[in-house]
Amino acid sequence: MSDKKTLEERVNEIRKQLDEHPEQYVEITHEEAEYMGAFEDDSMSMEDALASHDSVTQKDKNRPRVTDAAETAAKGEFLDIPAFVCKGIK
To answer: Which of 19, 32, 36, 85 could form a disulfide with 28 if both were Cys (CB 3.0 to 4.6 A apart)?
Structure first.
């Protein structure tokens, strides 16, 4: 029998640690975070997202899909941090 724990066993231990000591930092791998549902599938297109909220305007339709970070920062604006950036993921 292998000494390596299954993904489910590791996740159960992590959840137990978080329940017992919620104030403590717990390091987890990307695989464990995915298994625990820490990532959202944000593959919906901008058009579909806007259409689902019934707020599509002509400006939204003409908006470029790629934003230049340097150009945006030069204007004094900042881009949002992607949802998948989480502290503690290796």
So the answer is: 32
